[in-house]
Amino acid sequence: MRRTKILATVGPRSIRSGTLERMIRAGANAFRINFSHGTSDEHAMYLDRVRSAARSRGRQLAIVGDVQGPKIRLGTIGAGSVRLIPGQRWVLDSEVNRPGDS
Predict the structure, then answer these.
(1) Which residue range(s) make up the domain with 12?
(2) Count of domains in the chain?
(3) Could you write out the three-class secondary structure of the chain?
(4) Which end of the chain is less packed: N or C, by CB atoms within 10 Å?
(5) pTM (two decimals)
């Protein structure tokens, strides 16, 4: 199991002083930052603190930026809601100003 890696998630609780260093000491090889939550300023702060903790421990660590996959955001649905029935035709329209049946 020598090739096993430990990927630790960085967040508001783990970013506290000394916590990252303890995680590195415990065996973390890489840190994951979830870019789906927080602001760009928070993300930059997480990156800086992970890099600083790695330097203080004399380690080179990977940093993984986790981004959310594709998402479709719907606007107004013509009838307010739609009940989908298997086999029914349903139109998803990208035209913002034209409510359809989606």
Answers:
(1) 7-66
(2) 2
(3) CCCCCCEEEECCCCCCCCHHHHHHHCCCCEEEEECCCCCHHHHHHHHHHHHHHHHHCCCCCEEEEECCCCCCCCCCCCCCCCCCCCCCCCCCCCCCCCCCCC
(4) N
(5) 0.65
Instruction: Identify whether 29 is part of a domain.
Output: yes
Give the model confidence (pLDDT) of 1-57 as tens digits: 577 899 999 988 898 879 999 999 999 999 999 998 889 999 999 999 999 999 999
pLDDT tens string 9-24: 998 889 887 999 999 9
Burial class of residue 53 (count of CB atoms within 10 Å of its CB; 0-12, 13-18, 19+)? buried
